[in-house]
Amino acid sequence: RPILPLSGHQLLALWLLQPHLRPTPTGSTLAAMVDVAGVAYVDASEHGYGIAWQTRPDDQPEVVVGLPTATDAWDEQVHREATGFVRAVELAALKAPGRVSLIVSDCAPVAQAATRGSSSRPLQRAASTAALLAVQTDSAFVPLWIPGKEMVDLGIDDLSRKAAQALQDARLAPALFEHAADLCAAYLGGRPTVDWFASATSAQLPR
């Protein structure tokens, strides 16, 4: 893994300022020399995990939302965050192999474990997985903790909750639902007004 002279916060600051930094006489900037490929913001909840990947601060983020698998540690919140961290590292390895990626989480124990290791088995497993991927892809995955409120403000918190919940229940696409409602009106004399069996994430009518 590359040895980086800057902390995660310094790398994030450089990445955020990159569009505004002027090139040096040699045509490069400090941000370019550090070569931060992108930032993966990750959050997890009892419903699943959400990741927002950006290669540049002004880019529309690429969003990945997923549910836990049978082998994921999901009993405690810190274990969920560790699993989400690993998924973010896997995404960064896929998007930017051989480069530096920031993995931003609001879970301090996970960020610390990724840097120093942990006596917790799930946290140490996550840290070991990230380190192994770094070696295999010749990359650096720099963990960074930020407060949970910032995740909420960025909309990342909703990815692991509302967006993950939406994956757990199926519903008709809005256009198909409207077509079905029109058929009800044409053949049954009225459109549906109540959905007794919908969940909070699949309801398209009052429940």
What does this 3D model show about the protein?
The protein has 207 residues and is of the alpha/beta class. It has helices at 8-17, 30-34, 77-95, 108-116, 121-137, 148-154, 156-167, 174-188, and strands spanning 36-45, 48-54, 62-66, 100-105, 140-145. The longest helix is centred in the middle third of the chain and has 19 residues, at 77-95. The radius of gyration is 21 Å and the shape is elongated.
Question: What are the defining features of this structure?
Answer:
single chain; 207 residues; 5 strands
Report the average pLDDT across residues.
Answer: 82
Shape: elongated
Strand content: 15-25%
| Number of separate strands | 5
Major sheet: order of its strands? 3-2-1-4-5
Helices, by number, come to: 8
Reconstruct the topology from this structure.
Elements: H1 8-17, H2 30-34, E1 36-45, E2 48-54, E3 62-66, H3 77-95, E4 100-105, H4 108-116, H5 121-137, E5 140-145, H6 148-154, H7 156-167, H8 174-188
Parallel strand pairs: 1-4, 4-5
Antiparallel strand pairs: 1-2, 2-3
Helix pairs in contact: 3-5, 4-5
Short summary:
The chain is α/β, with parallel strands linked by helices. The protein contains eight helices and five strands, in the order ααβββαβααβααα.
